Amino acid sequence: MSELKELNAVMIHGNDLPLHCPTKDTPSWNYHPRVFLDVLETGDAAHIAARYTESSLVPSLTAINNSPPWRAFSMQRTLIIAPQWIGDAVMSQPLLAGLKQTNAAQTIDVLCTPWVAPIYRACKEITKVIEVDFQHGILQWDLRRSIAKQIKANAYNRAFVLPNSFKSALIPWLAGIPIRIGYRG
User: Fold this and answer.
1) Residue 12 gets which letter from DSSP?
2) How far apart are alpha carbons 177 and 156 in whole angstroms?
3) Are 159 and 79 in contact, with CB atoms under 8 Å apart?
4) What's the pLDDT tens digit per position in 124-161?
5) For the stretch 23-51, what's the b/e string if a residue is b when 16 or more beta carbons lie within 10 angstroms of its beta carbon?
6) How many helices (H) and strands (E) does the chain have?
7) Residues 6+ apart with CB under 8 A from 134
8) Which end of the chain is least crowded, N or C, by CB within 10 Å?
9) SS3 of 136, please?
C-alpha cells in the first residue's frame, strides 16, 4: 500500500469544533457513525488523510496558551457509563486503553454497578470508580437525577455510554455533559 505524499488541507473554524467525521455536509450515501477527530497535537486526522489548519476567523482561540484553536477544545475529563455485565466490562478495556493512549493526561472516571467495579479498579487507565447500585429493569428516576447532580459537579467534557439503553444515557444527559457518545437505538 502506498503512503500519502501530501495531505489535503482543510480549514476549520470555531463553529466546526469539536471536529468530527462525517460532517453535516457529507452526502447520505457516504454517511457512517460519527467519529470525533483528535487533532489536538498535530492537526492530523489520520483516518481521513487530511491536515486541519487554524482559521483566521478564530483568533480568540489561538490566543489561549498560544496554541492552535483545537487545543482549546482538549477533552481532559471523560466519564464512562459502564455495562452491567462482567464480560462486557472486560471487553470495554481496549476502549479505555485507546482513550488514554490518545491523551495520557486526561482523567477517565467510570460509573458502574458494584459487581463490575473490581474490573475497573484493576484498569490502570481509570482515575476514579463511581459505584451506584442500579437495579436491573427499574428506572430509579430519583437515584439517577441525584447521581447526575453529583456528576455535573465534576465538569466532564464527554461521556461514553457503553450500554445500549435509554436509562444508561439519562445520567450524562441530565448532568449536561456536552459530548455524549453511545449507540443510537
Assistant:
1) -
2) 6
3) yes
4) 999 999 999 988 788 899 999 999 999 999 999 999 99
5) eeeeeeeeeeeeeebbbbeebebeeeebe
6) 6, 10
7) 84, 113, 140, 143, 167
8) N
9) coil
Q: Which cell numbers in the block locate residue 167?
A: 436509562
Burial label for 93, CB within 10 Å (0-12, 13-18, 19+), is middle
**Helices 166-174/141-152 angle, 10° precision:** 40
Q: What is the pTM of this model?
A: 0.60
Please compute the mean of the pLDDT values over residues 13-33 and round it to a whole number: 66
Burial class (CB in 10 A: 0-12, 13-18, 19+), 62: middle
How far apart CA 57 and CA 17 sit, in angstroms, is: 13
At residue 94, φ and ψ (nearest 5 deg) are -60, -30
The pLDDT tens digits of the residues spanning 68-126 come to: 444 444 558 999 999 999 999 999 999 999 999 988 889 999 999 999 999 999 999 99
Question: Could you tell me which residues come within 8 angstroms of residue 64 by beta carbon, excluding any fewer than 6 positions away?
Answer: 71, 72
Burial string for 110-138 (b: 16+ CB within 10 Å, else e) reads: bbbbeebbebbeebebbeebbebebeeee
Residue 10 or residue 135, greater confidence: 135
Secondary element (H or E) of residue 39: none
